[in-house]
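Support reply, case 0932

Customer input (verbatim):
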Amino acid sequence: MNVLRHHVIREYEPVLPEKPSSDPPSGLNRLRTESQPDWLVAVFGLGRPVSWSRRQLRSMGEVVEGAFTRAEKPLILDKTVFRLRTEGRKASHVKMLQLGLRGDDYLNPDLILPGDWVMAWCFNNGQDKTRVKAALLDGKATNGFMDGLKFLGRVHGVRRNGSVDPSTGTKRSAYGVTAIGFSELDTQFYYDLALASAAAVSGDAVKWMAQVGLDFNDLLRGGLERAADLKDNAGILLAAMVDIVLGRGIRSDVNDAARSATAAAGADDLTQHDLVPAPQAGKEAPAAYLVPRGVGLALGKTVSQASKDDRVFGYADIMDTVIGCQSYEPGSGFQPVLDASASRGPRKFCRDPLKGTFLPVNLSFVNHPVWSILTSYLNPQVNEIYTAMRCDESGSVVPTLVARQLPFSTDTAKAGPDFPLTRLLSRPRWVIAPQMVRQEDVGRSDATRCNLVHVYGAALSFAKNKSETVQMSRNPPLFDQLDIQRSGIRARMGSVTCALSDVDNADAQRAWLSMIADTAFGSHLTFNGTLNTVGIQSPVAEGDVVEHDGVAYEVESVTHECSVNDGKKRFETVLGLSSGMPVDQSGATDDIPVYPGFANTAVNRSHPEDVAAFQSIGVDIADLTEDVRGSGRSSVGDRTDAGGVGDFAGQSEPGLGGTPWRR
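Our regenerated output:
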C-alpha cells in the first residue's frame, strides 16, 4: 500500500502545496533557509453582552441576537501581540490559546469580553499573513490547507498586568488573554425526566428515547425483542448524542418559540416544565450553541438545511465528527475512507464501525457535561475519542471530534473478519525533515511495559452474561511468560461493553485480547518524547502520524509558540510523540515486528548454554530451541553481525549461575 507521506518542508518552498500529497521537495538548495515568522488573531465580539432583565426576569431581545457581533468586522490583532501560544493534547478535549498584548486597553468592553469568539493563525512568512488577513476581512474562507489556522474557540479571561519601575516611576502594563477551544463540549446538558412534559413515561425506555430525540428502532435495528442480536452500535450512539446536545442547526422558528415563551411568561396557567428547555427531539441546535456568521464564513461553512436563519450558524454546522475504525486509501489525504451512504454533512462515518455494543437506558442528563455523555459510549480498552483542528477530506482545517479504534496495530497483527484493525504504519503521515528540527528528546520508557492482557466482556444489561470466572477459564489472559519472569506482572485488565455473541463465542473474545496485546506488548520498546521544530504552518494535528529519522510516531500533543524578542519574531512548534515504530519493517517476521534500533537477530535469541537456567519457569526452552534449529535458523546467532550485542566471550550473565557467554 502506498502511504501518503507529506513533506512538511515543502511549506518553505516559494510555491506552497495546495493539498497534501507525497510529492517530494523540489530541491532543498532552493528552500528558504530562514523563516519569516508572523501571526494573526481575530476576535469576533458578541453583541448584547448584558441580556438579563431583572425587572421582567427574562432575557431581552431575540434569541438569534446571541450570535450578533458588536462590530461588522472582527477585531484584528497582529502587531500588538508579543506572545502567542496554542496547545492541544489528545488527553484533553479542550484546546488552549494564550495571548500577550500591548497597546490598547483591552479591558475596554468594546474590544474583548469573555465569551467572544477567537481565531488564530501562525505563518512562516509575511505573504501568507497578508493574504489570509485580506480574505478574513472580505468574509471568505481562511482555513485552507496552507492558511495556518491553529485555533478556534472562545475568550475565557482578560487580565491586565501592570508594574512600576521604582527608580524612574515608569508604569508598564500588558494584557493577557486566555481562550478555550471546544468548550461547548463542557456544557452541562439539562434534561430531567421529573420535569419533562410527559414524566409519566419515565419508566418506558422506548418512549423516553423518543422524548430525547433518539430513534429506538434505528439504534436497536429492530426493537427490544431483537436487542440480543444488537452488535457494534457505539458509533451510532455517539453520533446520536452529538445531535441531541449540539443539534443539526438552528430551528427556523426559534424566534417564534422564544416570543411564545415570553408572551406566556405572565399567564396564570404557566407550569414548571414550560420553563425547562425541551430536549432536542427535532435534532436542531438549542440556542446555547449559536455561532457568529463571520466565524462560519471563515471556516468555509454553509448553513445546514435546518438552519433557515442565515444570520447565524449553529455549532453543529461548524464541527465535524469522524466516527469508526479508520482505513486509508491512496488519494484520501489525511481523512480516512468514509461510508458515503451513512455520512451526512459534518456527521461522517468510516466504513467499519467501532467495536462496542450498548443498550440505551433511561439516563438523567441533569448537570451532565456533554463530554461525559459522549465518553460513556466508548470502550477505552480498544477505542479513543478526542478533538482537534484537523484536515477534512478537502484539505480544509475544521474543528473535529474523532471517535476511532486505537490505531496502533502492528503490521504483524492478524485482523479477524469481524475485527478490522487500524495499523500505525498504514496511516498517512507528516514527514519532518532533519533541517527543521531544533531539538529532540526521544527514547524508550519502562513505564509503558505490559506483559499480561485480559478484558471481561459485559453484554447488554438484560442478557445472561457469562461470569468472569467462566470467561477467565474459557479465554485465559494472554501473557508473555518470559517477560513476567524478568519484570514481574505488568497487567492491562478491564471490561468492554460488547455484543452477546462476543461473550459466548470464544474466538470473538480472543480477537479482542489479541488486538489489545498487539498494541500493548512491547510498547516499552517503542520511542516516545518530544520534537522541537521551526514553526510548522502545515495543519499537523493531534492524532496524526509524524515521520522523523525513519520512525513513525503518534502525535499526542501539538504546541505552537510565537514571541517577539529584541524586536525579532520567533515561531516554533513542539510535538509530543508516542508509539514510535520504524517505517522500514522489512526485518519483521510473523511473530515479531521491528522496533526502533532492533533487527530481529541475536538480540532476540538465547544461548543453548542458558537453557538449563530457564527450566524452572515451566516452559521447555530446549524444545523451543530445537524448533528454531529445525526451521534452519540459528538459535545462537552471530554476535558480531549488525544486530548483535558485541563480544561477550568469557563474561558471565548475572543470575544464570555464571554460565559464560560465547561468540
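We compared this against your earlier run and they match. Two observations from our side: The CA atoms of residues 19 and 395 lie 6 Å apart. The longest helix spans residues 506-520. Please reopen the case if you see a mismatch on your end.
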